Amino acid sequence: MQLFLAFVLLVWTTAFPLTTQGSEVRVLTAMNQEDVLGQSKELLIAFTAPWCRHCKELLPVYERLASDLEDELVVAKCDGRSLAMLK
Fold it and tell me: Rounded to an integer, what distance in angstroms lies between the CA atom of residue 48 and that of residue 52?
């Protein structure tokens, strides 16, 4: 599954140029996790770290996916340092 998602991200970023728009990426926290995880759409969660260069470089890709596929996919990001707060 991880290989598939990596392939999809690679194809997506190659096929479509990135644009900067308002972010549709949800921020997953302990306060809203049930709302985000309980949606009936497919869910892609990006576990990120604020110091990680690769995480920062992929955020525009996640924003583009969330914007373009908003009817089919929920894209959320979660600070990997806060995993202990999630249930």
Answer: 7
Residue 2 is which amino acid? Answer: Q
- Per the listing, tokens 């596929």 go with 69
Domain ranges in the chain?
24-85
Distance CA 32, CA 37 (A): 9
- The 10s digit of each residue's pLDDT in 44-64 is 888 888 888 998 899 889 999
- The conformation of residue 48, written as its DSSP 8-state character, comes to E
Query: Which CATH homologous superfamily contains domain 24-85?
Result: Glutaredoxin (3.40.30.10)
The alpha carbon of residue 65 and the mean position of all alpha carbons in its chain are separated, in whole angstroms, by 8
3-32 pLDDT tens trace:
665 555 544 444 443 333 457 888 887 787
